[in-house]
Design a protein that fits this description.
11-stranded mixed beta sheet; globular; 474 residues; Amidase signature (AS) enzymes; single chain; two-stranded antiparallel sheet; alpha/beta
Length: 474
């Protein structure tokens, strides 16, 4: 197989070739390192590249597989990690100046699970500083750039993860999602991103943003690949107080099953108050596709969604400020201005306001639970517009003039409040050729159901087959 075709194989395709010994992990890793060399000067996806280590690991994987030691579908697969996942002996900057030289002495739980599965780490990926932002414009490392248009943002905070997967620099990446930081760059970069059920994937060794909201999630080019990554990383971890003690499951098990009779609700509150019409139209067309596949799709009303920003914003910023309080006092000038401002806002939030937000969260969660007694899945746009330009701080959207940092996470925040599994999947392109994403949310611990609906939609459309064209390379 030509080397220049390898970087856009799916994990499921590559795994089949590796298992049958038609493809070597050495060849696959070399193709991705070549792709990184060709593209990363323009994309700025990586903070730390581990080319030598990955090449050596690929050789070990090849020997293991040749000797009958095939570990499963991630064996020999090149992946990337957002630079807030601890990697033993490899620096973990969290996109910051403050932690620029921090080298953990242990692996994150998910890093361990990837290694056990035989995945090969290519490097640590660019992100918004301390994961506190939705653009991945980083004052210390420069901005991550969108492969569909390098003058535009990737979304964030897992921007390098989104860019790297979309551009074929790695086959999968991990992001983290506290207010949408997996789903936003997945939408902006035209890939799949899953925010699992809160507690479904261990957060041990993941630098926190807001402890009651943080989740760990995969980013890939297909839903099948996301489910395969979840099979490797999900599971109970007694070291994580928030970890759910549930039996392991196969997240691929429902993917090809019929969705006839499944009830899908399309909330009209909140999600369409401030949105570009071409995005709303793409989501309506996606809903029609799901209806054509046999689902019962209907509009619904969940008024509690209108409280999403006040609840999420208060909890997220207050919890983030508590984590960073010492550094805010000792070295405030080492934070980027946008992150410092938001942390200072959180630090000044009165305790009574935080408690009120948590009380409102309980009521919000009850409202979502009531809606999901009726509907199996909730469908909504992931972001209100295609990726904005790096050069603009404010954007016009749906008749409003909004800060880019505020509009990008607006539609993803509700699902973090209640912790339900939500997957973003490509559902179209804007008139400027920028990806559009929709998000599908299921009840807690029904991650496999959300993936099932996303997979059947994906297979009924062609959006996932499109690739960004970096004209002087592809």
């Amino acid at each position: 197989m030509p080397t220049n075709d390898l970087h856009y194989l799916t994990i499921s395709e590559a795994a089949s070739l590796i298992e049958s010994k038609q493809l070597s992990p050495v060849e696959l890793v070399a193709a991705h390192l070549e792709r990184i060399e060709q593209t990363d000067e323009r994309l700025n996806s990586f903070i730390t590249l581990l080319a030598e280590e990955a090449t050596e690991a690929a050789a070990v994987s090849e020997t293991e597989i040749q000797n009958g030691g095939y570990r499963g579908p991630l064996h020999g697969i090149p992946i990337g990690l957002k630079d807030l996942y601890y990697t033993k002996g490899v620096r973990t900057t969290v996109g910051s100046k403050i932690m620029r030289d921090f080298v953990p002495d242990y692996d994150a739980a998910v890093t361990e699970r990837f290694r056990d599965a035989g995945a090969i780490l290519l490097g640590k990926l660019q992100m918004h500083e301390f994961a506190l932002g939705a653009t991945s414009e980083n004052p210390h490392d420069g901005p991550a750039r969108n492969p569909w248009d390098t003058t535009r943002i990737t979304g964030g905070s897992s921007g390098g993860s989104g860019s790297a997967v979309a551009a074929g620099q790695c086959m999968a990446a991990l992001g983290s999602d506290t207010g949408g930081s997996v789903r936003i760059p997945a939408s902006a970069c035209g890939i799949v991103g899953l925010k699992p059920t809160f507690g479904r994937v261990s957060r041990v060794g993941v630098f926190p943003l807001a402890n009651s909201l943080d989740t760990v999630g995969p980013m890939t080019r297909t839903v099948m690949d996301t489910a395969m990554v979840m099979n490797a990383i999900a599971g109970y971890d007694e070291r994580d107080q928030s970890s759910a003690n549930r039996a392991d499951e196969d997240f691929t098990r429902l993917l090809n099953k019929d969705i006839s009779g499944l009830r899908i609700g399309v909330p009209q509150d909140y999600f369409y108050d401030m949105i570009e019409e071409e995005v709303a139209a793409a989501v309506r067309r996606a809903a029609a596709v799901l209806e054509g596949l046999g689902a019962q799709v209907e509009e619904c009303s969940i008024p509690a969604l209108n409280d999403s920003i006040s609840i999420s914003g208060t909890i997220l910023l207050t919890e983030a400020a508590e984590i960073h309080l010492d550094n805010l006092r000792r070295q405030p000038d080492d934070f980027g201005s946008d992150v410092r401002g938001r942390l200072e806002e959180g630090a000044m939030t009165p305790a009574v306001t935080y408690i009120a937000a948590q009380r409102a969260r309980t009521e919000f969660n009850q409202a979502i639970a009531e809606a999901m007694k009726i509907y199996d899945v909730l469908l909504a746009p992931t972001t209100a517009l295609g990726a904005p330009k790096l050069s603009e701080n404010f954007v016009d959207v749906g008749g409003a003039h909004e800060a880019k940092l505020s509009i990008m996470p607006r539609l993803t925040r509700p699902h973090n409040i209640c912790g339900i599994p939500t997957v973003s999947v490509p559902c179209g392109f804007t008139s400027e050729g920028l990806p559009i994403g929709m998000q599908l949310a299921a009840r807690s611990f029904e991650d496999a159901l959300a993936l099932q609906v996303a997979h059947l939609y994906e297979q009924a459309t062609e959006w996932h087959t499109r690739r960004p064209r970096l004209t002087d390379i592809d």
